[in-house]
Amino acid sequence: MDQTLLPLGSQNNMGRFTRSCGTSRSRGSTITMLNNCPSTIWAAILVTTRSFGSGRRLESGEAWTLNMLDSSVGRVWGRTNCNFDNLERGRCQTGYCSGVLNCQDSGIPPLTLAEFALNQANNLDFLDISLVKGFNIPIKFSPKTAYGCSRGASCAADINRLCPTELRAPGGCQSPCMVFKTNVYCCNNSTMRCGPTSYSRFFKALCPDVYSYPFDDEASTLTCPGGTGYDVVFCPS
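^ Protein P21-like, sequence as received from the core. Prediction below:
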């Protein structure tokens, strides 16, 4: 997705919300997160343009629906092997975000991201699945209706099993930027636009729908009319 629509990095002093980030008058979308995995997932959402985030424990088969305000930009991901106390503080093997259940900043890679930018130019929603931060859980990100939408996106491959040895991490397949920390993989040189690498091609071959490096092709960004509802399915069948 266009990096101007989805700013990466931590956001400080985030507000907290629980079930909804919309109002009764909002024309925004709904996002439903469904855990189709055989084990527990701790879902997380961060809305960078609204300065809030949240999280929820989802047992296998459980779902969580949020109302989103127009023009919200952010991302959804799943955390694995978490242990939180009665104050909702703890750690996770993947997707960890500053030790809290209700994420107030971006998760620590590796993590599979479902990114969204709602009701943007021409009243369109933009969405994608990104493996720029690595991979931890298979994800499907799709509209509840196909009307007016380009398509959905899915990354259901067993990337953790096939992950190159040098990118392997507990519970996931790490981002090459996190491992090698060079501009070739991190694309952090403002004067030089980086290109695909053998690692981004590895991700792309297994999941053709995804963003595999920060300047991936525009075909990885999907569009729907503003106000469309979406499903994020962890471990799609």
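The chain has one domain: 15-234.
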